[in-house]
Design a protein that fits this description.
Blueprint lengths: L5 E6 L2 E6 L10 H16 L5 E6 L3 E3 L4 H5 L3 H20 L4 E5 L2 E3 L1 H8 L2 E5 L3 E3 L13 H9 L1 H10 L2 E3 H7 L4 E3 L1 H16 L3 H14 L4 H15 L3 H11 L10
Parallel strand pairs: 2-3, 3-5, 4-6, 5-7, 6-8, 7-10
Antiparallel strand pairs: 1-2, 8-9
Helix pairs in contact: 1-3, 3-4, 4-5, 5-6, 9-10
This protein binds 4-(N,N-dimethylamino)cinnamoyl-COA.
Length: 259
């Protein structure tokens, strides 16, 4: 698939995926949703890539789903659009590789849903967050009600979703939407630094830990513990476990192969 609305750069095990439609503030149209799914699928299969950073070109991360495209949709097209978006958000959960959202500006509606689908969010101090869907006669439909309430609790999620208002980056950090804020010129450096740290350790263990966290959230605590123990046990069949623990005992730096 030709990627006309995305840029992909790979360096040192990190893939930078930039949504590149700045004239429309990177609003998510159907083609872009398809391109994102396709690009992430390829990055998941790419053994050289350990971590993905997702960002937007220009002054927005993503200013929402494309309202102009949605305004013309039939019910069937709306359903297909919804399925495409939800598949994308769920695929990020299923990826073994961490996906960091580097929010460089507006993250609204479907854009905030995309950021929330990522494993964590770094943002610049000028960024803005919100769910304006109710001002358009709809509600979040790409997993936003579920992911936001899980991340920050129902009360704060209710306030953001029911009012449709935007909040600034400081409030988003205080509410726990964003892990950390940075000056705009520092955001990508900081995201890369964290990505490099993640890329330097055992990728297999990270993939299993992500699996336990994502799927454990939908389980009872006891089932989650059981699932965690099963995955923990499987890691003892890996070369990386032997290498990691062996290197500690031998007082040398571990070299992980992801096997
Ligand atoms: N869709 C389409 N175009 C958009 C857009 C969007 N979401 N956001 C911005 N643009 C376009 C503008 O129309 C404008 O295009 P031109 O007029 O130049 O052709 C260009 O980007 C620049 O925007 P502005 O001129 O408005 O820029 P400002 O700096 O003045 O304002 C803004 C920035 C972010 C405050 C403003 O653009 C704005 O309010 N944008 C809309 C934000 C919004 O309401 N986002 C939520 C969209 S609704 C579903 C699943 C998911 C969803 C729905 C259904 N199903 C399950 C079916 C999700 C819904 C949403 O995300």
């Amino acid at each position: 698939m030709e990627l006309s609305q995305l840029l992909i750069e790979k360096k040192d095990g990190i893939a930078l995926l930039t949504i590149n439609s700045p004239k429309t503030l990177n609003a998510l149209n159907s083609k872009m949703l398809g391109e994102l799914e396709c690009a992430l699928y390829e990055l998941e299969l790419d053994a050289e890539v350990k971590v993905v950073i997702l960002t937007g070109a220009g002054k927005a991360f993503v200013a929402g789903a494309d309202i102009k495209e949605m305004a013309q949709m039939s019910a069937m097209e709306g359903q297909q659009f919804s399925r495409k978006g939800q598949r994308l958000m769920l695929f990020i959960d299923q990826m073994t590789k961490p996906v960091i959202a580097a929010v460089n500006g507006y993250a609204l509606g479907g854009g905030l849903e995309l950021a929330l689908a990522c494993d964590f969010i770094y943002a610049c101090v000028e960024s803005k967050f919100g769910f304006p869907e109710v001002t358009l006669g709809v509600m979040p439909g790409f997993g936003g009600t579920q992911n936001l309430a899980r991340r920050i609790g129902a009360a704060k999620a209710n306030e953001l979703i029911f009012t449709g208002k935007m909040i600034d980056a400081a409030k988003a950090e205080g509410w726990g939407i964003v892990n950390e804020l940075f000056a705009a010129e520092e955001l990508m450096d900081k995201a890369f630094k964290t990505a490099m740290q993640i890329a330097s350790v055992a990728s297999l263990a990270i993939g299993y830990a992500k699996d336990a966290i994502v799927h454990g959230l939908d389980m009872t605590r006891e089932d989650g513990f059981r699932y965690e123990a099963a995955l923990f046990g499987v890691l003892f069949a890996s070369e990386d476990q032997k290498e990691g623990m062996g290197a500690f005992v031998e007082k040398r730096k571990a070299v992980f192969k992801g096997e």
